[in-house]
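Working notes for the structural subgroup meeting. M.R. asked for a predicted model of this chain before we commit to crystallization trials. I am recording the input and output together here so anyone reviewing the notebook later can reproduce the run.

Input as submitted:
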Amino acid sequence: MSGLVLIVGRDLRLALRQSADAWLAVLFFVLTGALFPFGIGPEPSLLKLIAPGVIWVVALLAVLLSLERLFLADYEDGSLEQLLLSPLPLELAILGKVLAHWLTTGLPLIAAAPLLAVLFNMDMAGLGVLLLAMLLGTPILSLIGAIGAALTLGARRGGVLIPLLVLPLYIPALIFGVGATDAALAGLSARPDLMLLAALLLVMLVITPLAGAAALRQALE
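Returned structure, recorded in token form:
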């Protein structure tokens, strides 16, 4: 566990030195979401209806912006080879890097989500479920994205290939996340969708380290 903490701490320090990348994702999230009321009109009932879907889709796209840098810098400076040779299991190192990615990308998006919720006239009950769903769902986006980033590492136009690989895999998280918030706004129970999001998160916590480690080993051969 000390190795995991070191990986997370190192990536957080690097992210703080390049904080513009994290701010870029948050600014994209807020500005893109803010465009929708201008495009479809200021009707409160319509904005409330589309709010969960818009917020989730924009968050998904904002996460995509930062996926390419998940392993690329370490690959280019040789740090990834050192990780492979270190006593720390590569699977655990991948979990550490994904956690750091979520802390610098997913968590700021969750913090910015209430701003868009107010802009879209969302009820407080829906906002609470939205934040809980994003707390479960944004780590899934980082975990799935890590597999795509590992598979395209070293490939030409890797930044273009990552969205093509991961967008279809994002669909379940998108459906359950939007479904939970829609249920809360309709006065129904959001528990089934939240439970499915939690189950998907647990599954990806197992799959991502194994698949990511295999892809990184292949990229470094």
